[in-house]
């Protein structure tokens, strides 16, 4: 992929007693939204910290825009929202943003003007002269978000950008991210919430226990995963569906949400048969749709057993 | 270097704006003013002459002479000159103990509204022969009062002895004329017009300022590092700046705050000493006592030496404070861990005091070459007695060399430390950071 803005080759990072990232390779092409997915403790944050030069890999190469990131000369082209949020509590909001703009190479004047624009766009224009500590947690997160974007970076790296946000703020940030991608710039974000990644990302990489499990465009990932999936919603009497869904000749896997479910048809099974059996059972179907597998199903199918064990091992090893 | 400049500005502005800075900047001059005026105001309160009785059991004219001389003793207060003593002489006819006890019973009673005594001076024959006299008083705890009393009586004892040996009283008087010593400082073959006590005062004040600034601002560097680490701002910073750039910006930023504050303080001190007559006058004090104060004059070269060693010393110590801060996860932890560094700063001040009496001894020469102590020792030595160029240069070079080593080690500890969380590293781990970082 010649136009990759970011390329990882066999990157390894070991911490005392365990290996957080095992020979990870991936290419992030220019433009679009790239999702780095994985369960807790999979190595997402470690990978991002290596990309951002916060820590150095023990082995392997990381290339940013075709160059080595260690010099920080490319820092001005990358925006970073770390997983652990932090701001200078005693600084005023505007001063804080200007400072972050400056260390990314903006002149104070440009940084000031852009900060004002952004604060207005995210509804913080009344808070410019307040100290950061006076802001609510959500507002602080917006300030930090702005600081990652102020210098109009070509690549924006966001580590769990939507965690801890209410739906309204989450929506605001999502719009911003989508706008950036629409301008032809690249967004790399990590998350363990599959629905979000499914709706936003063009490409994804799923890692678990430091190893890459899935890599590719979302459509390709789904097609390669294969199988026929049916999305169901029940009007009433959902429990009556249970015996039908338990029939392994018909259904090979159930992702049960209570009032709805996503099921994978067994090989050779007919969707018509499933439909008629559910109707006979009288579950009050409100939805019966042949669908592609959700990212969540793929995720669980691919990393399920490991996902369950990884956090526990983190505790033991960490 | 725009990024480093941004860090410097942030450190400077956020500190200068803080309430702590404003309060301490204002409080400094107020404290200085208070130190300046305190003696004046205190002295104003003790203007009453001491009421003492001379119990004369010496026989002859001696007791009368002592009483007379004491009556003539004057004390210069800020506003006017007053007699130091109110004297009565009581002769005893061999009943010294009884009379003394009855007088002692009246001593120190003034508060009760009686016209009590401040003290009883007992003169006996052995005062002249063996130089023994006794004073019973409420003010025996004051070294100044006792010194004055002894100084007044001593020439009379000497005179009485000489007269007993048959010397002409006129000759005795003439022999007892005072000898005065006026000191003036010479630097590099030139008169400076500065008295010895003035340069002592200057050395004293400057090293104390250095000590305070190192402690206060060194710890600010440390807490700034801890703040960035514990709030994780450091991740964003480190993705844009190298650790060394960040460290440099921080130390320079805090150093400029220190220089601004010291500048304000020094400026106030200069204004106070220059206009001290007017200031004293405003508080109803006479100008005479104030003009006796030794005033240091600071030559430009002196200022250069002091500032260079201040800046070098500040970088030296704040690099260490930054390294300590980077190893810690919280301010409390940092407070506990900074003790070794602070001990060096305190040791520097102590050593400086011990060198004041012998600013050119072997010890002084050696300490000027130890980077830990040179920032205290060398400027003080320079202000006390002229240092040859070579020695000054050697001290600066030693300091610079030490600085390079310390910054190199501190930067390595800092680089790893700011991104290491969890329990505090052991010494062996820190050594590994230095080797491998």
Helix/strand/pairing category of chain A: alpha/beta
Helix content of chain A: 25-40%
Report mean pLDDT of chain A, rounded to a whole number: 85
Largest sheet of chain B: 4 strands, mixed
Roughly how much helix do the residues of chain B carry, as a percent range?
55-70%
Strand order across the largest sheet of chain B: 4-1-5-6
Largest binding interface between chains: A-B, 27 and 24 residues
Strand content of chain B: 5-15%
What pattern of helices and strands is seen along the backbone of chain B?
A: HHEHEEEHEHEHHEEHHHHHHHHHHHH
Largest sheet of chain A: 6 strands, mixed
Structure at a glance:
The complex is a heterodimer of chains A (318) and B (437). With 318 residues, chain A is of the alpha/beta class.
Relevant terms:
heterodimer; A: 318 residues; alpha/beta; 10 helices; 36% helix; B: 437 residues; abc type-2 transporter like fold; 2 domains; 4-stranded mixed sheet; two-stranded antiparallel sheet
Question: In words, what does this structure look like?
Answer:
The complex is a heterodimer of chains A (318) and B (437). Chain A has 318 residues and is of the alpha/beta class. Chain A has helices at residues 44-51, 93-103, 108-121, 137-149, 167-182, 194-200, 218-225, 242-245, 271-281, 295-317, and strands spanning 4-15, 18-29, 32-37, 59-64, 78-81, 155-159, 186-191, 203-208, 211-217, 229-234, 251-256, 260-265, 285-291. In chain A, the strands form three sheets. Chain A has a six-stranded mixed β-sheet, sandwiched between helices. In chain A, strands 11-12-10-13 form a four-stranded antiparallel β-sheet, covered by helices on one side. Chain A has a three-stranded antiparallel β-sheet with strand order 2-1-4, covered by helices on one side. In chain A, strand 11 and strand 12 (260-265) form a beta hairpin. In chain A, helix 2 (93-103) packs across helix 3 (108-121) and helix 2 packs parallel to helix 4. The radius of gyration of chain A is 23 Å and the shape is globular. In chain A, 37% of the residues are buried. Mean pLDDT of chain A is 85; it is low at 307-318. Chain B is α/β, with parallel strands linked by helices and 437 residues long. Chain B contains 19 helices and eight strands. Chain B has a four-stranded mixed β-sheet, sandwiched between helices. Chain A binds chain B through residues 49, 52-55, 72, 75-76, 78, 80, 82, 84-91, 95, 99-100, 102-105, 147, and chain B through 2-3, 6-7, 9-10, 13-14, 18, 227-228, 231-242, 419.
């Amino acid at each position: 992929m010649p136009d990759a803005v970011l390329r990882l080759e066999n990157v390894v990072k070991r911490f005392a007693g365990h290996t957080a990232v095992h020979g990870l390779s991936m290419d992030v092409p220019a433009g679009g939204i790239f999702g780095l997915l994985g369960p807790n403790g999979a190595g997402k944050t470690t990978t991002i910290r290596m990309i951002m030069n916060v820590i150095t890999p023990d082995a392997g190469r990381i290339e940013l825009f075709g160059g080595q990131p260690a010099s920080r000369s490319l820092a001005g082209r990358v925006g970073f929202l770390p997983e652990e949020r932090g701001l200078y509590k005693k600084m005023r909001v505007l001063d804080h943003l200007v400072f972050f703009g400056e260390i990314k190479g903006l002149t104070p004047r440009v940084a000031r003007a852009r900060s004002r624009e952004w604060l207005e766009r995210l509804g913080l224009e009344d808070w410019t002269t307040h100290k950061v500590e006076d802001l609510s947690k959500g507002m602080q997160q917006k300030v930090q978000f702005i600081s990652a974007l102020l210098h109009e970076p070509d690549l924006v790296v966001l580590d769990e950008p939507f965690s801890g946000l209410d739906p309204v703020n989450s929506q605001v940030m999502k719009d911003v991210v989508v706008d950036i991608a629409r301008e032809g710039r690249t967004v790399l974000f990590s998350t363990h919430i599959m629905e979000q990644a499914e709706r936003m990302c063009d490409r994804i990489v799923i890692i678990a226990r430091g190893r890459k499990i899935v890599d590719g465009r979302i459509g390709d990932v789904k097609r390669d995963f294969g199988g026929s999936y049916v999305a169901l919603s029940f009007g009433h009497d959902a429990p009556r569906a249970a015996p039908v869904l338990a029939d392994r000749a018909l259904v090979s896997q159930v992702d049960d949400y209570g009032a709805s479910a996503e099921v994978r048809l067994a090989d050779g099974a007919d969707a018509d048969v499933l439909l008629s059996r559910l109707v006979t059972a009288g579950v009050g179907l409100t939805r019966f749709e042949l669908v592609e597998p959700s990212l969540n199903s793929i995720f669980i199918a691919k990393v399920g057993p490991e996902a369950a064990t990884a956090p526990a091992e983190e505790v033991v090893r960490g | 270097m725009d990024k480093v400049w941004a860090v410097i500005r942030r450190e400077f502005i956020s500190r200068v704006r803080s309430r702590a800075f404003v309060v301490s900047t204002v409080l400094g001059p107020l404290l200085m003013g208070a130190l300046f005026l305190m003696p004046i105001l205190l002295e104003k309160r003790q203007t009453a002459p001491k009421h003492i009785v001379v119990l004369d059991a010496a026989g002859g004219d001696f007791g009368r002479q002592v009483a007379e001389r004491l009556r003539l003793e004057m004390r210069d207060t800020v506003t006017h000159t007053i007699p130091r003593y109110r004297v009565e002489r009581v002769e005893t006819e061999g009943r010294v103990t009884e009379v003394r006890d009855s007088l002692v019973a009246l001593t120190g009673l003034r508060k009760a509204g009686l016209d009590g005594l401040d003290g009883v001076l007992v003169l006996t024959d052995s005062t002249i022969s063996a130089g023994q006299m006794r004073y019973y008083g409420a003010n025996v705890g004051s070294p100044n009062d006792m010194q004055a009393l002894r100084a007044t009586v001593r020439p009379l004892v000497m005179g009485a002895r000489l007269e007993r040996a048959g010397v002409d009283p006129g000759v005795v008087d003439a022999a007892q004329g005072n000898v005065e010593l006026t000191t003036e400082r010479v630097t590099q073959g030139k008169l400076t017009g500065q008295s010895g006590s003035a340069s002592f005062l200057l050395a004293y004040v400057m090293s104390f300022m250095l000590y305070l600034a190192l402690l206060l601002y060194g710890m600010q560097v440390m807490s700034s590092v801890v703040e960035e680490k514990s709030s994780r701002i450091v991740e964003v910073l480190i993705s844009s700046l190298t650790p060394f750039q960040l460290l440099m910006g921080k130390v320079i930023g805090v150093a400029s705050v220190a220089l601004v504050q010291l500048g304000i303080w020094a400026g106030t001190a200069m204004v106070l000493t220059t206009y001290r007559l007017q200031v004293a006058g405003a508080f109803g004090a006479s100008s005479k006592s104030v003009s006796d104060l030794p005033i240091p004059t600071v030559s430009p070269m002196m200022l250069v030496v002091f500032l260079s060693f201040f800046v070098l010393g500040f970088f030296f110590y704040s690099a260490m404070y930054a390294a300590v801060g980077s190893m810690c996860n919280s301010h409390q932890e940092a407070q506990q861990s900074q003790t070794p560094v602070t001990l060096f700063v305190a040791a520097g001040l102590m050593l400086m005091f011990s060198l004041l009496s012998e600013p050119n001894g072997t010890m002084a020469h050696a300490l000027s070459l130890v980077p830990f102590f040179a920032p205290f020792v060398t400027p003080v030595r320079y202000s006390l007695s002229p240092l040859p160029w070579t020695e000054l240069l050697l001290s600066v070079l030693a300091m610079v060399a030490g600085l390079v080593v310390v910054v190199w080690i501190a930067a390595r500890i800092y680089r790893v430390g700011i991104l290491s969380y969890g329990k505090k590293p052991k010494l062996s781990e820190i050594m590994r950071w230095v080797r491998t970082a």
